[in-house]
From TrEMBL, chain A:
The protein's name: Heme exporter protein C
Recorded superkingdom: Bacteria
Family: Belongs to the CcmC/CycZ/HelC family.
InterPro entries xref list: Cyt_c_assembly, Cyt_c_biogenesis_CcmC, Cyt_c_biogenesis_CcsA/CcmC
Residues in the signal sequence: none
GO CC terms, sorted: plasma membrane
Gene: ccmC
Membrane topology: Multi-pass membrane protein
UniProt keyword terms in alphabetical order: Cell inner membrane, Cell membrane, Cytochrome c-type biogenesis, Membrane, Transmembrane, Transmembrane helix, Transport
Residue intervals of the Cytochrome c assembly protein domain: 20-180
Natural source organism: Parapontixanthobacter aurantiacus
GO terms under biological process: cytochrome complex assembly
Localization per Swiss-Prot or TrEMBL: Cell inner membrane; Membrane
GO MF term list: heme binding; heme transmembrane transporter activity
One of the Pfam families matching this protein, by short name: Cytochrom_C_asm
TrEMBL record, chain B:
The keyword rRNA-binding belongs to this UniProt entry's keyword annotation: no
Protein name: Cytochrome c-type biogenesis protein CcmE
HAMAP family found in the cross-reference section: CcmE
Binding site for heme: 127, 131
Topological domains, Extracellular: 32-155
Membrane topology: Single-pass type II membrane protein
InterPro entries to which the protein is assigned, alphabetical: CcmE, CcmE-like_sf, NA-bd_OB-fold
UniProt KW keywords: Cell membrane, Cytochrome c-type biogenesis, Heme, Iron, Membrane, Metal-binding, Signal-anchor, Transmembrane, Transmembrane helix
Protein's organism: Parapontixanthobacter aurantiacus
Transmembrane segments: none
Residues of the signal peptide: none
Main localization category: membrane
């Protein structure tokens, strides 16, 4: 694991892994969405609206997974002080926020015909909205610390602190009466018919690979940025 | 005795902080349990009725066989039940969501009247965690399993 903390070795790996992840993720997500949107039978109660499941669920899981990645990378940075871990946390923030926003938007569109409302302030919806705001705060904080050139210790602490929200989102539908239904997929058990479960799992896998590919691409871009800046600074100091 | 490396000290501190944070979050959320509920269950409402001048929500299942239209033609009446013994009669005039059928989940917004009848101003349908295609709806679980076995043998 520590071997890949070396930026040069990381770049060598990321160079071929990034396009591989992005391409395989795109193909898998495209197949899953094609099957989900056109081939799967309508639900007994919700009818055609059930198809939004194949976007809503993967984006919801990855919205939460993105913050777990930020928290994990932040912990690794605080312990081993490796700059690449801080970079990984920074890179995961924007895709995480985008997926959380897609989850909220699709959930709202889904809620209108099935529940009869665009939005309610119940435990699940509110805690997911808080996650989106946490992402915005984290992005602002980590960008500011990078711009000022100070140690990313404060965004790392924020990333750890924000992880408190993840178990709350996960348990919100179990602890409280909420309009959102309880989890359909629990350990080794699924209340989702096999006709939906297959494409759903493929969709989750595809979106996950896409997410990983975007994070790697962003890490490469951030590294290149830092190198370019360091070179400019060196040239400026030599010229002076 | 060897000294603890600073790296390991930070690891232990970090993990302890994370565990403490998650425990704090769980405790806080657990303490909120009753305050963060989105709706009353029927037996909660029966045993501890909310004041009649306050808007509250009532959630549960639409009792099978209880749904009927009143004589005025626009008001529907039904009972909301939970798995236990609680049962609250509800009146509502207006358009109901697609998923509103007998036996399905519902969240009614409105007020409890003095007579113990809940006057709903808005109805929200609640979906459960089951996703089942239309074709399999009529079949019992046993029939559906048989079909699956037959399909597998046919392959």
């Amino acid at each position: 694991m520590h071997g890949f903390a070396n930026p040069r070795r990381f770049l060598k790996l990321a160079r071929w892994l990034t396009p591989l992840l992005l391409a395989s993720g795109t193909v898998m997500a495209a197949i899953a969405l094609y099957v989900g949107l056109t081939r799967v039978p309508p639900d007994r109660l919700m009818g055609e609206t059930v198809r939004i499941l194949f976007i809503h669920v993967p984006t919801a899981w990855l919205g939460m997974g993105g913050w777990m990645a930020i928290a994990g990378a932040s912990l690794a940075f605080l312990v081993w002080r490796h700059p690449l871990a801080a970079l990984a946390a920074r890179a995961a923030a924007v895709p995480g926020a985008v997926f959380t926003a897609i989850c909220l938007a699709t959930g709202s569109i889904w809620g209108r015909p099935t529940w009869g409302t665009w939005w309610v302030w119940d435990g699940r919806l509110t805690s997911m909205l808080i996650l989106l705001f946490l992402y915005f705060g984290y992005i602002a904080l980590s960008d500011a610390s990078a711009r000022e050139g100070v140690s990313p210790k404060i965004p790392a602490l924020f990333g750890l602190l924000g992880a408190i929200n993840i178990p709350i989102i996960n348990r919100s539908v179990v602890w409280w009466n909420s309009l959102h239904q309880p989890p359909s997929i629990t350990m080794g058990n699924s209340a989702i018919d096999a006709a939906y479960l297959g494409p759903l799992m493929l969709s989750v896998a595809g979106f996950s690979l896409l997410f990983a590919g975007v994070v790697l691409a962003r890490m490469r871009a951030l590294l290149a940025d830092a190198q370019a800046e360091a070179r400019l600074r060196r040239m400026a100091s030599e010229a002076a | 005795m060897s000294r603890v490396k600073p790296k390991h000290q930070r690891l232990v501190l970090g993990v302890m902080a994370l565990v403490a944070l998650i425990c704090a979050g769980l405790l806080a959320a657990y303490a909120l349990r009753n305050n963060a509920n989105y709706f009353y269950l029927p037996n909660q409402m029966a045993s501890d009725p909310p004041p009649t001048d306050r808007d509250v929500r009532l959630g549960g299942m639409v009792e099978a066989g209880s749904l009927r239209t009143l004589n005025d033609g626009v008001t529907i009446a039904f009972n909301v039940t939970d798995q236990e013994s609680g049962r609250i009669p509800v009146r509502f005039s207006g358009i109901v969501p697609d998923l509103f059928v007998e036996g399905s989940g519902v969240v009614a917004e409105g007020r409890l009247t003095g007579e113990g009848v809940f006057r709903a101003t808005n109805l929200l349908a609640k979906h459960d965690e089951n996703y089942v295609p239309r074709e399999l709806e009529e079949m019992s679980k046993h029939q559906a399993e048989e079909l699956v076995v037959e399909a597998r043998e046919a392959q």
